[in-house]
Write a structure and sequence with these properties.
This protein is of the alpha+beta class. Helix content is 27%, strand content 27%.
């Protein structure tokens, strides 16, 4: 087995000791050509266990996606954000404090209007209702300055609201 990354001390011993067990569990691709993983794999790219996800993020998921199962969590070390994948295709992003920063329906679907109502300030949601777009919201993003609503609509692409929830920009298709 060839290690791509230079490992030192105890970490190297752990990886080398675990390598036979890891390789024994690797499925063979088509053609039965063995695949031998190199390096320390996903741990280097930022995957984390569920215990690393902030409690506030876990509460958000449990409250708003009670039937969903977390299928993946990735911590972006540079930005200190977490990306969470759910079994229903929903993709979530959280900052280091556990506040949601993006909710995406995934798989070309739209978010439930009841969830959109929770994610947006009341006046933003009311604007979406008035525009008859409650069933067309694909993604909601937020930061300290704005909310961005990405739509699956033949007329509109994105709506941007300021932090107070006032519509400030409409991007047309």
């Amino acid at each position: 087995m060839k290690l791509v990354y230079t490992l030192r001390g105890a970490l190297a011993a752990i990886v080398i000791a675990a390598a036979p067990a890891v390789m024994a569990q690797v499925a063979l691709p088509a053609g039965n050509t063995p695949y031998y993983p190199t390096g320390v794999g996903p741990a280097v790219s930022g995957s984390v266990n569920i215990g690393k996800l902030p409690e506030k993020a876990m509460k958000f998921i449990g409250t708003n996606f009670p039937q969903a199962v977390i299928t993946g969590i990735e911590e972006k070390f540079n930005s200190r954000t977490f990306e969470v994948d759910l079994n229903d295709g929903t993709d979530l992003e959280f900052n280091s404090a556990g506040d949601w920063t993006e909710v995406d329906a995934g798989h070309g679907t739209c978010l439930a209007p009841s969830l959109v109502k929770i994610l947006l300030p009341a006046n933003s949601y009311n604007e979406i209702v008035n525009m008859k777009l409650t069933n067309a919201v694909e993604t909601v993003k937020r930061d300290s300055r704005f909310y961005k609503v990405e739509l699956r609509s033949p007329e509109y692409d994105d709506l941007r609201f300021n932090s107070a929830g006032v519509l400030v920009e409409i991007e047309m298709d």
